[in-house]
Write a structure and sequence with these properties.
Helix content of chain A: 40-55%
CATH architecture of the largest domain in chain B: 2-Layer Sandwich
Strand order of the largest sheet of chain B: 6-5-17-16-15-7-8
Oligomer: heterodimer
Strand content of chain B: 15-25%
Strand content of chain A: 5-15%
Number of helices of chain B: 30
Strand order of the largest sheet of chain A: 1-2
Largest sheet of chain B: 7 strands, mixed
Radius of gyration of chain B: 29 Å
Number of helices of chain A: 9
């Protein structure tokens, strides 16, 4: 009995560790969540070259960047019904007109679109977009080349190491470095 | 060996398996974070930016004072209330009850939709349309029977537009509108009518006085306008220009207000009027009265100090001393009110106080009849009594109840509850199931003031607006809208009101105010400006009054007491629950009562000598028996009460009113007789004697501070005024330190707390709960010393050579943000550390809960989360999104509102500058009505906080342990016995 457990525990532990590593690294893999509408950032930010702030308009005034209201979507899609063509959305074939019609449906029902959050920060972190944008950082520095993504995914793991590296590299002087490495800057 | 015998596994193997299984579970669960959604607006509301708060000006309706408030809204939810600095009443401050209004809004026991009583007598939900139809039918049915005049609308004092609408509605229906206030201050009105011919309650200018003499007026707690008067009091009583004003408080019990007095005069209950006349006589006799006593000399001469001393129990020399001070420290002011002077001779007492003011030449100076309180217009107790009897006689067919709980607040002898049963149709607009609304036939829940349009005029010069800060939490509807809607459905009333919504009605009503306001632009501009300012504030012209000869006809009698018990019984309004309406708010339940530091319950205050006589100790139970009934409650031994008096606070003892209030403590009103003040007819609160006997029951007296003395540690320090005037030898010497001194660049956040200003009201404590997501834990947890408050008011009773034999000192204690913090080096995981701006940082996500820091904290201000505390839905809607909600196993403490610091720095950075002094306030500082707390940057030597830190009176608590706190306390100033 005892020996059996001992022998068993080695592969079990190994599997646990491997699984753990897999899940740990999988978080930053290039598969975002499936959204209620196959909304392509590649089309909007890439092909159409809409600036990020056109939709995420509070990014320089608020901690939260803001996501567009359904009304905002309809501002364009009132007129743009989309081509009736197939589109390769990260390997899934979708019909563009079909997807756009979903937006119009939400609008007609006066319902919000229940997007799934792609990047999230833990509850004990107070992150503000405003300060970073005001400092002149590009969205892509944290969010990756969104203009090339159909489905947006976490380009970086956005963990504390990521934050601190950037804070250390970008501090103007010693005073700012002290402040940027201070726990209370982000945790309270 | 166990292996063979039991065939099971050994302990070590079991642990191994569990370890592996647990590890697997942990790894597996850690990777699947719950899917979060982000829900966009369909149509974005104008002016709302997610993540950026909006502030709306409105008016607090937790008591009749009508303070202006600013309500912080984040993403559509009201999350914090602060005083509106533009309001002439509270000038930016607030009280604990005002702070806790949010827990009324988000109370889990709020009525969620209209309710109607079914045949089985149970309240069942129904839709608004159906509810209004039911009401319409009842009204039409009644009018069909020709029974007009049998409709009564009983509300609290609603002086604004809603009151006007109710009045018009009742006129149209042939009904009656009665305004019932639990504390209506009727004797005050009547005394002023007798004395000056004006039956109004004036405003007082405490700030302009040098000497304040209060006869029972608990102006720091509940009297008339507590925040305003606390603020004024703080101005007159703070140390500046080498002098301070003096405050003497006369009351049988050392209330919270008395605790801030320089002298507490313990007086035989009900004899305050005699004392006032005695003092007036002494002033006249010594030739110190500017009017020489006028025609009152003869009357006054009957009140020689000797005789007065005999009746009142106040020593002769105290009478002479007060007389001397009252006439020499000008301007002076005597005020009277509160339950302790509301005996059967209340009006006489207050007339006597008016005479005292007149004799000293104060009328018109510090008493202002140019701007009177609208609560003067509330109905009399006589009206309530006759309402009860007409209900009893079946003369009321429909009774509307708005924001009142008479079954709880009226004496039982009035039989209001039984009378209510004789009314065929009772309609309640209550937000809660309470002792009264549970007896209603139908409940049409009103919006809370935070969800509705309205206005309120606490005094003639103030028209305060109430605006909705968020959409209603539940399926409730504004009562104004219900009245207009029902009126539209009642056939005969059709067309009586042109407005369909109360908002329109309100605006139309404000057009009249606009017409009366000269020199303002068009109405829309006036309306917008009033909304932004929280209302429209006029300047009030002062009004000269003179004393009427009628005062000489008043017979100054001694009070009458029912029952033949040994003790006078005092039921006093609580500054936490007012008349009981605050009891369903957990923040107020958990706010320690300043004098006992007791929480979540009731108790009877017993003098130590009396306790000995009755053979009871702290926590024992006493049975108090009046001719009207018996209550049993816990003993709190308190030297600040007369040996011949027992007192219990009003507000607890609910038999209904939600989970936080129900079955908690006792309601002292239950044993009060139906006595009235002889001249005004107002209810006499202090009118019975009780017998007290020990009950065989003992429970821990749950409080937050179990000691009353400082154990010679000199925590709350005081200095004599004379010593201070001579000039303190203030030296800032530094002992040699092993460590080099800390250096700060731009900011070192610090604070100065003036103990001379602190009145112990606890507004800061509740504000801190609201701002920082502090969990309330309940009585059982507080009993185990697990309360989570980040700031507490320490109270000490110091021995003194004054008449009372003790003085009370309050000291707000929170994390001292030590420069040399004992908590920091003992943390094994660096979860607490000193930050470059002088803050003692607490990083929740690093904390592993060893609690070493709390053990090592000199000031015992660190609180540990023993459990995962929950806020029952929707109380959690109030949580501040800028502050982490702490979880089990984590230490927490005052952060100096680091989120506010961060916010201020963010705004300053936008403009490329540093944060300026006074640009933002921390939550406790913002709430404080006494302006005792000043927060600021100590590195900025011009900042207010920095200057105060170097004040002569400044000291650090337990400085000898060299923690180098960021908080400087300013010593309380004691006045020598004259």
């Amino acid at each position: 009995m005892r020996k059996g457990i001992k022998i068993l525990s080695v592969p079990v532990l190994a599997i646990v560790i491997l699984l753990g590593f897999y899940f740990y690294s999988a978080e930053s893999s290039d598969q975002g969540p499936v959204q209620p509408i196959r909304f392509s950032h590649k089309i909007h930010a890439g092909e159409d070259q809409l600036p990020c702030q056109f939709c995420h308009s509070f990014v320089d005034v608020s901690p939260n960047p803001g996501i567009p209201s359904v009304k905002k979507c309809m501002g364009c899609h009132q007129h743009i019904v989309g081509r009736d063509v197939d589109y390769d959305f990260d390997g899934t074939t979708i019909n563009i007109r079909n997807e756009i019609s979903k937006v119009r449906e939400y609008w007609a029902n006066k319902e919000p679109i229940p997007w799934t959050k792609v990047n999230s920060t833990p509850g004990y972190l107070r992150f503000t977009h405003k300060r970073h944008i005001k400092r002149g950082f590009e969205c892509a520095q944290c969010h990756g080349d969104v203009a090339a993504m159909d489905q947006v995914y976490s380009a970086d793991r956005l963990n504390m190491g990521f934050c601190i590296t950037c804070h250390t590299d970008n501090a103007k002087d010693h005073e700012e470095l002290t402040h940027l490495k201070d726990c209370l800057t982000c945790h309270y | 060996m166990s292996e063979d015998k039991k065939g099971g596994i050994k302990r070590r193997d079991f642990l191994k398996i569990i370890g592996v299984a647990g590890g697997t579970a942990a790894v597996a669960s850690s990777c699947s974070e719950p899917v979060e959604q982000i829900i966009p607006y369909v149509i974005p509301p104008e002016g709302i930016i997610p993540g950026v708060p909006n502030w709306y000006a409105s008016t607090c309706r937790e008591c009749p004072a009508g303070c202006g408030i600013l309500v912080k809204n984040r993403e559509g939810r009201a999350i914090k209330i602060e005083g509106n600095s533009k309001s002439p009443i509270n000038n930016g401050a607030s009280c604990a009850r005002g702070q806790a209004a949010l827990q009324g809004l988000y109370n889990p026991d709020r009525i969620k939709s209209p309710l109607s009583k079914n045949d089985a007598g149970k309240l069942q939900p129904l839709g608004w349309e159906e509810a209004e139809k039911t009401l319409t039918e009842k009204i039409e049915q009644l009018r069909g029977n020709g029974k007009t005049g049998n409709i009564v609308f009983l509300s609290n004092h609603i002086s604004g537009t809603l009151g006007k609408l109710v009045g018009e509605w009742m006129d149209a229906l042939g009904g009656k509108h009665i305004e019932y206030e639990t504390f209506a201050h009727e004797p005050l009105k009547e005394a002023n009518r007798i004395s000056f011919g004006i039956d109004k309650i004036p405003t007082y200018h405490i700030d302009k006085t040098e000497y304040l003499l209060s006869f029972g007026a608990d102006f720091i707690e509940t009297w008339l306008s507590p925040v305003e008067y606390t603020k004024q009091f703080s101005k007159m009583h703070s140390y500046k220009d080498k002098t301070i004003g003096k405050f003497v408080h006369v009351e049988p019990r050392a209330s919270l207000t008395a605790s801030s007095a320089d002298q507490w005069v313990s007086i035989k209950p009900g004899t305050e009027g005699i004392l006032a006349l005695g003092i007036a006589n002494a002033i006249v006799q010594s030739g110190q009265s500017p009017s020489g006593g006028g025609g009152l000399r003869g009357l006054l001469s009957q009140y020689s100090s000797g005789k007065v001393s005999e009746i009142t129990g106040v020593p002769e020399q105290t009478i002479t001393q007060i007389a001397n001070e009252f006439s020499s420290m000008q301007p002076s002011l005597a005020i009277g009110g509160g339950v302790s002077v509301t005996s059967t001779n209340a009006t006489e007492t207050l007339v006597a106080i008016n005479i005292l003011n007149y004799v000293a030449g104060n009328i018109g100076d510090t008493v202002d009849f140019g701007d009177t309180l609208t609560i003067s217009n509330a109905n009399s107790f006589q009206d309530i009594t006759s309402l009860a009897s007409s209900m009893e006689n079946g003369e009321v067919d429909i009774l509307f109840l708005y924001d009142v709980n008479p079954v709880f607040t009226l004496p039982k002898q009035l039989n209001f509850k039984e009378s209510l049963g004789k009314v065929p149709f009772v309609v309640s607009f209550s937000s809660f199931i309470d002792e009264t609304s549970e007896l209603a036939n139908i409940i049409l829940p009103d919006n809370t003031p935070i969800e509705s349009w309205g206005d309120y005029s606490p005094r003639e010069s103030v028209h305060a607006l109430i605006q909705p800060v968020m959409s209603p939490v539940f399926n409730t509807k504004g009562t104004g809208d219900v009245i207009l809607s029902v009126s539209g459905q009642v056939e005969e009333l059709n067309g009586r009101f042109t407005q369909t919504t109360f908002y329109d009605y309100l605006q139309d009503s404000w057009k009249e105010i606009w017409t009366g306001a000269s020199g303002v632009g068009d109405f829309d501009a006036f309306w917008t400006e009033s909304l932004e300012n929280g209302g429209y504030y006029k300047d009030a012209a002062s009004k000269q009054v003179s004393i009427s000869s009628g005062v000489s006809r008043v017979k100054f009698s001694e009070p009458e007491f029912a029952g033949d018990g040994d003790f006078y019984f005092m039921a006093y309004p609580s500054y936490r629950y007012y008349d009981g309406r605050g009891a369903n708010k957990p923040w107020l339940q958990e706010l320690p009562e300043a004098l006992s530091t007791g929480v979540w319950g009731s108790w009877v205050e017993v003098h130590p000598d009396t306790a000995k006589k009755l053979n009871v100790e702290m926590g024992d139970f006493l049975s108090l028996e009046s001719p009207e009934g018996v209550i049993e409650t816990q003993v709190y031994v308190y030297q600040g009460i007369r040996p011949d008096t027992l007192s219990v606070m009003i507000g607890q003892g609910h038999t209904s009113y939600g989970r936080y209030a129900k079955d908690r403590g006792v309601n002292p009103i239950d044993i009060l007789p139906l006595s009235t003040d002889a001249l005004s007819g107002g209810f006499a609160w202090l009118s019975t004697k009780v017998k007290a006997s020990k009950v065989q029951k003992h429970e821990q007296f749950v409080q937050t501070q179990y000691t009353t003395t400082q154990h010679d540690r000199n925590i709350a320090q005081a200095v004599a005024l004379t010593e201070l005037q001579k000039g303190l030898h203030h030296e800032e010497h530094h002992e040699p330190d092993f460590y080099p001194p800390r250096e700060y660049d731009r900011y070192r956040w610090g604070m100065a707390i003036d103990l001379q200003k602190c009145v112990g009201c606890g507004a800061c404590v509740t504000a801190c709960y609201a701002e920082n997501n502090i969990a309330f834990v309940g009585k059982d947890m507080v009993a185990k010393r697990r309360d989570m408050a980040w700031i507490r008011i320490e109270r000490y009773f110091e021995e003194s050579n004054n008449d009372a034999g003790f003085e009370t000192r309050f000291l707000p204690m929170m994390c001292q943000q030590c420069g040399n913090a004992p908590c920091e080096p003992v943390c094994p995981v660096f979860a607490t550390y000193h930050n470059p701006e002088g803050l003692n940082g607490m990083v929740y996500n690093r904390c592993v809960g060893t609690r070493y820091c709390a053990n090592n904290c000199t000031y015992k201000v660190r609180k540990f989360n023993w459990f995962e505390y929950k806020w029952p839905e929707p109380l959690n809607w109030q949580l501040n999104p800028d502050v982490t909600v702490r979880s089990m196993g984590v230490m927490e403490k005052c952060s100096f509102c680091v989120q506010r610091i961060s916010h201020a720095k963010d705004l300053a950075k936008d403009d490329g500058r540093d944060v300026g002094d006074g640009e933002f306030k921390v939550a406790c500082e913002q709430a404080c009505p006494a302006e005792a707390i000043v927060f600021g940057n100590l590195e900025d030597h011009e900042s207010k906080a920095s200057k105060l830190s170097h004040d002569d009176r400044g000291y650090k608590v337990l400085a000898e342990v060299n923690t180098e706190p960021g908080i400087t306390y300013l010593k309380k100033v004691t006045q020598d016995k004259a």
